[in-house]
From TrEMBL:
Organism: Chitiniphilus eburneus
Highest taxon in the source lineage: Bacteria
Record-annotated HD-GYP domain positions: 257-452
Pfam family, one: HD_5
Name of the protein in question: HD-GYP domain-containing protein
Keywords: Hydrolase
UniProt GO MF annotations: cyclic-nucleotide phosphodiesterase activity
Amino acid sequence: MATSLKLAELIASFSYALDITEGQPEGHCVRCCWIGVHIGRQLQLPPEQLWSLYYTLLLKDLGCSSNAARICELYLTDDRTFKHDFKLSGTGLPQVLGFVFSQTGRHANWSRRLSAILNILRNGDTIANELIQTRCERGAGIARRLRFPDAVAEGIRSLDEHYDGSGRPDGLAGDVIPLNARIALLAQVIDVFHFSGGPEAALAEVHQRAGHWFDPALVGAFEMVAAQPLFWAGLAADDIAEAVTALAPDHGSVVLDDDYLDEIAAAFGEVVDAKSPFTAGHSARVGFYTELIAEELGVPETRRRWLKRAALLHDVGKLGVSNAILDKPGKLDAEEWAAVQRHALYTEQILSRIEPLRELARIAGAHHERLDGSGYPHGLAGDRIALETRIITVADIFDAISAERPYHPAMSVEETLAIMADNVGKGLDGECFAALRRVLEREQARAETEVCQSALAA
């Protein structure tokens, strides 16, 4: 698999996960890449700089899941709708205030809504700094873990800086703002307004923000690009993902070996887990348990490594579910439960975008299927559920029950296994569950031995 994948194709595919956490129509980051690379070419940027710009554009929203829970908490609203609508709200004080009043606590009672609005009015600057800094720092950090250079990481970190110095998180101005960030912000606004209102709306918004948000020289470069009919046709094309992959600048040889694929899977698992305080470390733990169970069952090492990637990415579709639902402490209503169930299908769809990952997508996306056919998203039963999926399911359920969640406290290993045992044969595979139990017993025995040895040594 490593030899058949290209970095541009893989990152473009994963960028669709970033689109849904921002509440944007699918393909937003890919379209921003189309826009930004055309601007970069108009500026005649050298290949190395075009390369870093290309990946800055695809990964500009890498840290956006990290402030989703806080947005829900502060604004008492759906984080995805909030993020989508905010990008269209305009830049003036009346528009910002109108947005705050219309979005905050839309489904809360008047007492909670008023309290939240007053908090935002009193502490708006501090809140904005916190939300943007969290996103920027997290995104830059993950970009570095993905082996991208500082030019990409700093482009992501400075996405919300404005040319006149009014942006965040550092209030940078003019050419001090990294060029990749200046182009990425411009491309983002162009795509959002083009998608909602066409080329005229995009151009009007760019002209309105020129010199304030945007570098006038970049606006001039975009005007040259915008005069080309093929640019707009490409932006609206159904096959834009393939076109953007073809745009990838040729800058050296990036080898997608197994180590790099492991790191990419782990990094996007972190993006998923950052969406809720209740899922911190969940994907990594599911990957760990999956690997142990698979080894216990005699799955070959190369297949185990592949399977661990599926486990790390099994919940990538949760980026498309509002934190108002994910973090809800009470019982979900029918509509909310349907939204949660869709996350498995989102996982499958995101990972299926490129052919070499389609088997992995099928395995990861089926982790909520049950042996008796009562699971989702496809209602698979019995032998139609692959062994690899059964392994991930056992690992996922063990971690979900044993860790603290909004709807239940953390549980001990013994309590967790007892609950799972009642599900064996109906929802869970008996062999996979028995393998998990054996692994946990060995780990516990090993830990007790180490404690005894330490005590004797002391």
